[in-house]
Amino acid sequence: MKKTLVTTIMAAICYAASAQITVPQPSPQGSTYSKVGLTDITIDYSRPKMKGRKIFGEGDKFLVPFGKLWRTGANSGTILKTSTDMMVEGKPLPAGEYMLLTIPGKDSWTIVFYKDKSIGGNMNAYKEADEQLRVSVKPGHLTEPVETLTFNISDISEDNTKAAIELAWENTSVKTGVEVNFDEMVMKQIKENTEVNERNYLAAADYYLNTNRDLEQALAWMNIYLEKHPKEFWNVHTKAQILAKLGRKKEAKEAAESSIELAKASQGGDFGYIKRNEDLIKSL
């Protein structure tokens, strides 16, 4: 009898524990991610809403008063992760995970990358010694209000070396500039991998071509690859581009004409390379 009663009670407890009701959170979780160069940048945060409140301003009537340390979001604050070292507003930030704390102001915001993530939303536990980096940026004004706190990774440059971490809420936009350097990583990969996989010669040659490095080395790598794959007209076109940049116009024209003939003979189509080669020949 006792055993049956205990079993019944335990079953009831287990049912009560599993039969929970899930409701929307007042400040739902949000996340934004982008790769800048070869760097993975992720921001995980909680997203409070305006709900008719005044958000940024001078004095206690504002939800986030100027001049006071803010966890930059709701609940346990905002966590930024960077997979590599990067520069933030011209200052170095090592790879890792940081709480993103801020001190809002009318004309300037202080952005703090904080090492001790365990403080969560308890700003009373803040210690200056746990700051990894502190920078100042100017806020911008939004013409259309943003109801829910939003982070973006925006303004990625054409060469994939620069971007901005943007906070937008109410009528305020705050952008913090970041810069990454992937050149050393690419060069290391080129050195280590070109002899492991022959297709890496293509990637190495293309990188040297696009970054105006040692074009003779780029040509040598391309020739090594084309010795085994002479009919790949798209790569013969790249060889023509390298020769053109080297100023070897006659050889560039010959390579482009060879690429055209190979493209015409291709049963799968030329993928636009006939025109690319014709344009290259005209430019010579």
Descriptive account of the structure:
The chain has 284 residues and is α+β, with helices and mostly antiparallel strands. Helices cover 33% and strands 30% of the residues. The chain folds into two domains: 156 residues, no CATH class; 101 residues, Serine Threonine Protein Phosphatase 5, Tetratricopeptide repeat. The strands form three sheets. Strands 1-2-5-8-9-10 form a six-stranded antiparallel beta sheet, with no helix packed on it. A four-stranded antiparallel beta sheet has the order 7-6-12-11, with no helix packed on it. A hairpin with a 7-residue loop joins β11 and β12. α4 packs antiparallel against α5. The longest helix has 17 residues. It is elongated. It starts with a helix and ends with a helix.
Characteristic terms for this protein:
284 residues; alpha+beta; Serine Threonine Protein Phosphatase 5, Tetratricopeptide repeat; 2 domains; 6-stranded antiparallel beta sheet; 4-stranded antiparallel beta sheet
Outline the fold blueprint.
Blueprint: H1 2-18, E1 29-36, E2 39-46, E3 56-57, E4 64-65, E5 79-82, E6 86-88, E7 91-93, E8 96-103, E9 109-114, E10 131-137, E11 139-154, E12 162-179, H2 183-193, H3 200-210, H4 215-228, H5 233-245, H6 249-265, H7 273-283
The biggest sheet, with number of strands, parallel, antiparallel or mixed sense and barrel status, is: 6 strands, antiparallel
Cα-to-Cα separation, first versus last residue: 98 Å
User: How many structural domains are formed by the residues?
Assistant: 2
Write the element-wise H/E pattern from the N-terminal end onward. HEEEEEEEEEEEEHHHHHH
How many separate helices? 7
Number of strands: 12
- The general outline is elongated
Radius of gyration: 28 Å
Task: Give, in spatial order, the strands making up the sheet with the most strands.
Answer: 1-2-5-8-9-10
Proportion in β-strands: 25-35%
Mean pLDDT: 90
Helix content: 25-40%
Model regions low in confidence, pLDDT < 50 over at least 5 residues: none
Secondary structural class: alpha+beta
